[in-house]
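With this grant's support, we have settled on a layout for protein records. One resulting record is reproduced below.
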Amino acid sequence: QVQLVESGGGVAQAGDSLRLSCAASGRTFTLMGWFRQAPGKEREFVARIIVSLGFTNYAESVKGRFFISRDSAKSTVYLQMNSLKPEDTAVYYCALGSSGSYEYWGQGIQVTVSS
C-alpha cells in the first residue's frame, strides 16, 4: 500500500520562501513531480525529476524560483519555493510514478501567498 504524505504548505508573504515535502512509503519511484491547481483553474505542471537521469525541468512560471529535489533514503521529494508571488497561490500536489507516468498523487496542500 503506497501512501504519500505532504507537508510544508501554509501562508506566506510575497517574496518569502516555503518548502514542500512529500514522503512516500511502500516503494521507490523513478519519476517525482509537483503540480498545482489555483481556484477556478485546471491543474498544471510545476516541476519534475527523473531519478535515473538526475534530470529536472520546470514550468516557465516558476523557473529560477522553485527547485525540486529528493532524498532517496527517505523516498521524499521536496519543492523549495523562493521569491513567492501571489499568483503562486494554489493547492500543490506531489505525484510519483515510474516508466514515464504518474501513478500516485498526494492529497494536496494549500499554499497561500499574500501581497
The chain is about 0% helix and 60% strand. The longest strand covers residues 90-98. The mean pLDDT is 94.
